[in-house]
């Protein structure tokens, strides 16, 4: 199981984050997908994993927050 | 492969039950495909509470999916407040580098999770079992084989 809680708890919010394939490191961020992917590529990760980092990590019903 | 079993993924929790610092989610990595473009893998939550597969509009923007004339609906949540417009468009998904299929997705700007794999489009193709009897929690997905 991936435990992303430590990696993401102090990460910037309201943005896209690009992770390495092994889910261990943040290698890009961006206001949009293209920006996060581009930064990841500059950092050597050609096929990153993308996560949306919310303003706060609160329990949610995901359709309307 | 016609089935897979996965453990839940832990995310931070900044405001939940007192003492809880993590929330476990049934998450899959999904690649979105449209015409000849492919997007990197994005986190998708498996959510039987959602009537459709839903996507942040950022994904449509990246893949240049034109939602201008797309059929429009609206979506509300369990928490009161104004509903949000939802634009429907077909998109192809590749789940965990394994299953590829097309869904009619609902695209919404204010979606707090990038992709939601909901009842229409996902649960009608896969039998999903959530197992909270053990820690970490697990979920299993079985492709439904339709017999004609």
Could you provide a short overview of the structure?
The complex is a heterodimer of chains A (65) and B (148). Chain A is α+β, with helices and mostly antiparallel strands and 65 residues long.
Features:
heterodimer, A: 65 residues, alpha+beta, 2 helices, 23% helix, B: 148 residues, mainly beta, 1 helix, 5% helix
The percentage helix of chain A is 10-25%
Q: What is the H/E string of chain B? A: EEEEEEEHEEEEEE
**With helices defined by DSSP (H or I, 4 residues minimum), what is the helix count of chain B?**
1
Total helices of chain A: the number is 2
> Structural class of chain A, please?
alpha+beta
The general outline of chain B is globular
End-to-end distance of chain B: 21 Å
Spatial strand sequence of the major β-sheet of chain A: 2-1-3
Structural category of chain B:
mainly beta
Secondary-structure element series of chain A: HEEHE
Identify the strand order in the major beta sheet of chain B.
Answer: 4-6-11-7-10-9
**Main sheet of chain A, how many strands, which sense, barrel?**
3 strands, antiparallel
* Beta-strand content bin of chain B: over 45%
Contiguous low-pLDDT stretches of chain A (5 residues minimum) are none
Walkthrough of the structure:
Chain A has 65 residues and is an alpha+beta fold. Chain A has a domain at 12-53. Chain A has two helices and three strands, in the order H-E-E-H-E. Chain A has helices at 5-9, 33-42, and strands at residues 15-19, 26-30, 49-53. In chain A, strands 2-1-3 form a three-stranded antiparallel β-sheet. In chain A, a hairpin with a 6-residue loop joins strand 1 and strand 2. Chain A is globular, with a radius of gyration of 12 Å. Chain A starts with a helix and ends in a 12-residue tail after the last strand. The mean pLDDT of chain A is 90. Chain B is mainly beta and 148 residues long. Chain B has one domain: Beta Barrel (Cathepsin D, subunit A, domain 1). Chain B is globular and about 45 Å long. The mean pLDDT of chain B is 90. The chains are: A alpha+beta (65), B mainly beta (148).
């Amino acid at each position: 199981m991936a435990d992303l809680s430590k990696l993401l708890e102090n990460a910037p919010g309201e943005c896209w984050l690009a992770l390495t394939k092994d889910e261990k490191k943040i290698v890009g961020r961006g206001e949009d997908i293209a920006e996060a992917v581009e930064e990841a590529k500059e950092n050597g990760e050609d096929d990153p994993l993308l996560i949306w980092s919310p303003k706060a990590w609160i329990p949610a019903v995901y359709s309307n927050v | 492969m016609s089935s897979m079993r996965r453990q839940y993924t832990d995310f931070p929790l900044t405001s939940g039950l007192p003492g809880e610092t993590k929330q476990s989610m049934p998450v899959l990595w999904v690649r979105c495909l449209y015409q000849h473009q492919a997007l990197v893998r994005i986190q998708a939550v498996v959510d039987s509470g959602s009537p459709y597969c839903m996507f942040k509009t950022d994904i449509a923007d990246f893949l240049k999916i034109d939602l201008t004339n797309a059929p429009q609906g609206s979506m509300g949540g369990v928490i009161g407040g104004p509903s949000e417009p939802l634009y429907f468009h077909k998109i192809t998904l590749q789940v965990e580098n394994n299953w590829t299929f097309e869904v009619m997705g609902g695209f919404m700007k204010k979606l707090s999770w990038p992709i939601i794999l909901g009842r229409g489009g996902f649960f009608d193709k896969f039998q999903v079992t959530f197992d909270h009897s053990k820690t970490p929690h697990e979920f299993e997905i079985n492709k439904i084989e339709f017999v004609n």
